[in-house]
From TrEMBL:
This is Octaprenyl diphosphate synthase. Supplies octaprenyl diphosphate, the precursor for the side chain of the isoprenoid quinones ubiquinone and menaquinone. GO terms for biological process: isoprenoid biosynthetic process. It catalyses: 5 isopentenyl diphosphate + (2E,6E)-farnesyl diphosphate = all-trans-octaprenyl diphosphate + 5 diphosphate. It comes from Variovorax terrae. One of its GO terms (molecular function) is all-trans-octaprenyl-diphosphate synthase activity.
């Protein structure tokens, strides 16, 4: 996932030096006596992306005045957890392309991807202990468990064309938004903030992560494969009833609804072009963007509860600029 806007770049520039420190921690903690572990880990971590989860933790620390080195360690932890989920996701989804290049499972095989994902999870838990804070351990262990539940829930929902918006949101708030929420909450915990501020941080992270995934699902039907670095219609091929498809079935004709339902239930992509046209013609993308806008506004309202400073302004910019995302 990438965000392209000058305001977002300005927000991330605030933590550029911090991110270099995090990169150093990542490089050191990927060290292993087993060469393939480091090879696969570095392959996926070097694939690109804005590293928004560690960036979110660092921006929260900046907004709340925490300057300790533990922020670098925990930012690396959330990146390792995220990377582990990507390795496992691509195996489960049988994906071949991520961020414009072959997935790790395509390059190294499924067994290596699964096992190196396990290594990254376990290395993340080793690093959590360095914080010597049971609250940090609780947040990260709970988040990792919820993410795993979200993955299983999504698996159960595969090829289920009856999934509604509430069911869809339940999956992405577990699978995607939970690590955003944990990253933001950790900034407050490190800064020893009040319960009210901690909750505002968590609300911000959950809302931002939800909006981010909703927009990602829009791009599966609004973008093109070359720009997005993924195969257009991947979610449909995997039998995932994402919000653009749910909205299209709610707004389309009986015939249009039947076409989408059949594709979700079978994973067939022969009518992909027709389905993309239905999604666009029914206004489903606008409905989905409105859902993302509501989440982005929720994030903005949460960020306004933070102390007024450059880092808090950066958090506001991240939420406000989210809907300009095109890739």
């Amino acid at each position: 996932m990438a965000v392209n806007s000058s305001s977002t770049a300005a927000a991330l520039a605030l933590i550029a030096d911090d991110m270099r420190e995090v990169d150093g921690v990542i490089a050191r903690r990927l060290d292993s006596a087993v060469p393939l572990v480091g090879q696969v880990s570095r392959y996926i971590i070097s694939a690109g992306g804005k590293r928004l989860r560690p960036a979110l933790l660092l921006l929260m620390c900046g907004a709340l005045g925490y300057r300790g080195d533990q922020r670098y360690n925990l930012a690396a932890v959330v990146e390792f957890i995220h990377t582990a989920t990507l390795l496992h996701d691509d195996v489960v989804d049988e994906s071949t392309l991520r961020r414009g290049r072959a997935t790790a499972n395509e390059t190294f095989g499924n067994p290596a991807s699964v096992l190196v994902g396990d290594f990254l999870y376990s290395r993340a838990f080793q690093m959590m202990v360095d914080a010597q804070d049971m609250r940090v351990m609780q947040i990260l262990s709970d988040a990792t468990n919820v993410i795993a539940e979200g993955e299983v829930l999504q698996l159960m929902n595969m090829h289920d064309a009856s999934l509604d918006e509430a069911g869809y949101l339940r999956v992405i708030r577990s699978k995607t938004a939970k690590l955003f929420e944990a990253s933001a909450r950790l900034g407050a915990v490190l800064a020893r903030s009040s319960p009210e501020i901690e909750q505002a941080c968590a609300d911000y992270g959950q809302a931002l992560g939800t909006a981010f995934q909703v927009i990602d699902d829009v791009l599966d039907y609004a973008g093109d494969a070359g720009e997005m670095g993924k195969n257009l219609g991947d979610d449909l091929r995997e039998g995932k009833a994402t919000l653009p498809l749910i909205a299209a079935m709610q707004r389309g004709t009986a015939s249009q609804c039947a076409t989408i339902r059949r594709a979700i239930e079978t994973g067939a992509v022969e009518e992909l072009d027709h389905i993309v046209a239905i999604v666009r013609d029914t206004g489903a993308l606008e409905v989905t963007r409105q859902a993302a806008a509501a989440e982005a506004q929720r994030a903005v309202e949460a960020a306004r509860k933070l102390p007024a400073n450059q880092h808090a302004e950066g958090l506001l910019q991240l939420a406000a600029q989210l809907l300009e995302r095109r890739s």
